[in-house]
Structure prediction request, 295 residues.
Amino acid sequence: MADRAAPVAALVVNAFVWGLSWWPFRALQDHGVHALWSTSVIYLVAFAGFVVLRPAALPELLRTPGLWLLAAAAGMTNVGFNWAVTIGDVVRVVLLFYLMPAWAVLLAWPMLGERPSPAGLGRLLLALAGVATVLDTGGVGLPWPRTLAEWLALAGGFSFALTNVLLRRLSQVTSASRVLAMFGGGSLLAGAVATGGVLQGSIAALPALRGAGWGLALLLAGGFLAANLCLQYGASRLPAHTTALVMLSEVVFASLSSVALGAAELAPRTLAGGALILGAAAWSAWPRKTAAGAQ
Prediction:
């Protein structure tokens, strides 16, 4: 038990950082910095710093096409989640994002050759029932995403599931190159979408940060770097199902902080749908018995 304390604590720190990340992103937006620009700058700093620490990872990234797809998936994950939490109800966004176990069931079949089991289909249906409950408007129309934040949250969750599947497919490449690809994708895709928004007139250009703005940006960059290190430390020392269960604490941190600060409401439908979605996620993470009967 003592051997697990430090890895579990590291994963909780990672979940805490991501669960509270909505606040600095919104604070930066109050300083005129769109979440996409914040994401691009933060991950550019992380990318550059990681190249200095692990220079051999860059050539491997450049010569491995599979890592380019990983970069795109990780980039879309950050675009979807970070943008959504700045414009939508934080609790609803996080819950819709956590539909990712359902997406994983669908993606693992064509990409990894893992046919969905009856239990996998059950988790998929449970998660979809939760999403329908969260999106239900009381009988007025179909339970379908109606806001940009909801669409972004769903897209981010799908991209995160794709990221996890790709990480499994790319297990033969070094972990450093995978991390570098994810940092690079986060910066490049967020910057590209932000630039497109500027050209269309829907997103303001990146302003010159001053004082508190730079402080928040550096705080967020440092937090994400620390969170990634904690994730690498914890996930490499614990069973995958334990990691997944601990990471669900992100929902708790995001919900409590956003409700306390007035960025979300815990409506009955949200609570009911959230219970179904988290139930599906916990079911997906629960340890399975092997043929020999050991967990």
